[in-house]
Write a sequence for this structure.
């Protein structure tokens, strides 16, 4: 599985691998919102937690359709399915590679973009923490969606429609954590619920995704 | 070690293709599947590889002893020849890709990215992958597509070495591989009867291609 992780990371950093795509999107979104909303700092500060979380979520979605589709097209998914690694392990490893190349950079870049959106000072720690805790759920839920749509031509849009509703709890509790921190309130409860969603998704969805892959490979 | 297929029926897209197929493949043996397009060679190989369930019958093969080689090469275009091979070797818990590269005449191309290879060179790389898996049974679907005569010879040598080491190979191919010791199995007699009431025009029941319509 380490070999698979190494390969996916290497592929992501090579030409056409898509590393930085999500990050660029996130950056542009955070620059566009103040231009659209106007320079009023109070308004920006109020909507900053929500905008940052929605932006991170959409940026994460951008690279999901490549997760299994590329391996399916060039035949390596068939070969991985017949390899000694269980398909559940393949799903979990590829989701981890997606998180490392897409979501982790988002979490690290988010505070910089928070300044652009006039995010209140006390919220920066909560922003990083909530993104670090919440985004693994985005990757693994996305891997499940990608496994469901792997055999379809142009399945990217269907993937978004399938996955976005499943992102709602993560978005609600993630944005809530940052909002409460910005208001100086205790953010333990939404942060724990966020962690609970991530733990549940990471524990269950690799099995569901592997099952979907087996059906799609037939 | 032995691959035993007993009373196997396979289907594609819900339509039965082969029925009552039985064969045994022992160590050191190669079996070549023959049959017209659409006769179910690929479907049979995918079933043996465990990628799709059989309609009926049993396939018994020692677990984790099968390496599948499909139509698609399964290569990553931005990885080099050596990186592609090393990846598959470590997935199978093995190391050392030099002998495989040498056997398929790829040593000079080791540092070249797979996207810059010709179709035949990619095919040779896909076949070299089999050698690094260390698996006992090779299940190969049209392994010689886009290979020139010299490379077909190389491939036949590699298969012969694999068989001599106690391995086995199940191949679907249309051309002569230069493996006189291989047994040939014609799939035409095992064609499944089309179930009544499936709505197929009588004029088409003679053609194999209906499974793909």
């Amino acid at each position: 599985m380490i070999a698979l992780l190494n390969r996916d990371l290497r592929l992501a950093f090579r030409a056409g691998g898509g590393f930085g795509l999500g990050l660029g999107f996130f950056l542009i979104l955070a620059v566009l919102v103040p231009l659209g909303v106007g320079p009023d700092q109070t308004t920006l500060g109020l909507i900053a937690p929500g905008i940052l979380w929605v932006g991170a979520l959409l940026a994460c979605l951008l690279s999901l359709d490549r997760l299994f589709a590329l391996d399916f097209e060039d035949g390596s998914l068939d070969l991985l399915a017949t390899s000694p690694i269980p398909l559940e392990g393949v799903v979990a490893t590829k989701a981890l590679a997606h998180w490392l190349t897409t979501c982790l950079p988002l979490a690290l870049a988010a505070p910089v973009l928070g300044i652009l959106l006039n995010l209140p000072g006390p919220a920066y720690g909560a922003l990083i923490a909530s993104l670090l805790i919440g985004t693994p759920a985005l990757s693994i839920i996305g891997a499940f969606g990608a496994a469901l749509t792997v055999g379809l031509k142009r399945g990217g849009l269907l993937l978004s429609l399938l996955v976005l509703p499943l992102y709602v709890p993560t978005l609600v509790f993630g944005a809530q954590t940052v909002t409460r921190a910005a208001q100086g309130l205790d953010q333990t409860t939404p942060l724990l619920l966020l962690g609970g969603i991530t733990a549940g998704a990471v524990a269950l969805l690799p099995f569901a995704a592997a099952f979907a892959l087996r059906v799609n490979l037939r | 070690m032995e691959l035993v297929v007993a009373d196997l029926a396979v289907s594609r897209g819900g339509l039965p293709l082969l029925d009552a197929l039985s064969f045994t493949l022992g160590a050191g043996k190669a079996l070549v599947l023959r049959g017209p397009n659409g006769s179910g060679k690929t479907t049979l190989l995918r079933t043996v590889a465990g990628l799709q369930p059989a309609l009926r019958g049993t396939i018994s093969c020692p677990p984790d002893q099968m390496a599948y080689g499909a139509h698609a090469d399964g290569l990553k275009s931005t990885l080099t020849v050596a990186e592609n091979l090393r990846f598959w070797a470590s997935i199978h818990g093995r190391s050392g890709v030099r002998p495989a590269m040498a056997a398929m005449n790829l040593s000079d191309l080791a540092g070249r990215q797979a996207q810059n290879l010709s179709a035949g060179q990619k095919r040779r790389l896909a076949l070299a992958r089999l050698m690094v898996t260390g698996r006992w049974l090779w299940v190969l679907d049209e392994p010689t597509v886009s290979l020139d005569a010299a490379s077909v010879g190389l491939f036949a040598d590699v298969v012969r070495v694999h068989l001599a080491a106690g391995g086995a190979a199940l191949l679907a191919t249309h051309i002569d591989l230069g493996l006189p010791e291989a047994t040939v199995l014609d799939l035409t007699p095992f064609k499944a009867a089309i179930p009544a009431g499936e709505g197929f025009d009588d004029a088409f029941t003679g053609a194999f291609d209906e499974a793909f319509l």
Summary: The first helix of chain A runs from residue 2 to 13. The interface with chain B takes residues 2-4, 6-7, 10-11, 14-17, 73-76, 78-85, 217-218 of chain A (CB under 8 Å). Chain A has a mean pLDDT of 90.
